[in-house]
Specification:
With 218 residues, the chain is α+β, with helices and mostly antiparallel strands. It has four helices and six strands.
């Protein structure tokens, strides 16, 4: 084999070694580029979500329909933050509700459920959740359930709240309520219950709410 044919073979081997040696650098560059795109996507998603959430909270701040507000917060990505965002709207509509840690988990027409976080500031001297906090929790859940059935022209005012305490409330407390609006028009009273349960699903309290409801024809 003469030198004319040996040189290209040597050159090819050297080129292959150079390319092979450069592979890690190329991989690092590719990974850096990929992570840059991922970071850009994440930052863009976070910014878009933040602006969307802020806009929705601002736009819905005076909404009288909890169901409409809840459904408006059900879009992609924003839905993951719906309980916290709805809590902001709830505290604006009912400032006293923010005195305890209430989070709504579901709202449908005539139905509402949520949970109450056990915190030291809402406990009584016996180490359980204070009766006043449980009553506020029940009234809030029942109120959202009732208001979710009303139109803009309708009105509902709580006229009575009676609560039966079954056992000491400790830990995470859940509550659920169903409210049925009849087909009548005018003013009348409608009663319904809110059941509060602990982590073992045992009822810790049952609240009986009476609403003075006034509905009008559309």
């Amino acid at each position: 084999m003469d030198s004319a044919t040996a040189t290209p073979i040597t050159t090819s081997k050297e080129a292959f070694r150079i390319i092979l040696a450069d592979v890690p650098r190329l991989l690092r560059k590719a990974i850096e580029l990929e992570w840059s795109l991922v970071r850009l996507f994440i930052v863009g998603t976070v910014v878009a979500t933040a602006f969307t959430a802020a806009y929705l909270v601002f736009a819905l701040r005076n909404s009288k329909s909890p169901l409409k507000a809840w459904e408006s917060l059900g879009g992609p990505v924003v839905k993951a933050f719906r309980p916290s965002l709805f809590a902001l709207l709830l505290s604006n509509a009912n400032p006293f509700s923010s005195s305890i840690h209430i989070r709504i988990s579901t709202i449908t027409k005539g139905s509402c459920s949520g949970f109450l976080k056990d915190q030291r500031k809402i406990r009584n001297p016996f180490g359980s959740i204070h009766a006043g906090a449980l009553a506020t929790f029940a009234e809030t859940i029942g109120g959202v359930a009732a208001l979710s059935t009303l139109s803009k022209k309708d009105r509902a005012i709580l006229t009575s709240l009676k609560i039966d305490f079954k056992k000491k409330a400790r830990g995470l407390i859940t509550a659920s309520s169903q409210f049925t609006l009849d087909d009548q028009t005018g003013r009348r009273e409608i009663e319904h219950e809110v059941v509060l349960r602990d982590y073992s699903l045992e009822a810790v309290a049952i609240a009986h709410l009476t609403w003075s409801v006034e509905t009008k024809n559309d």
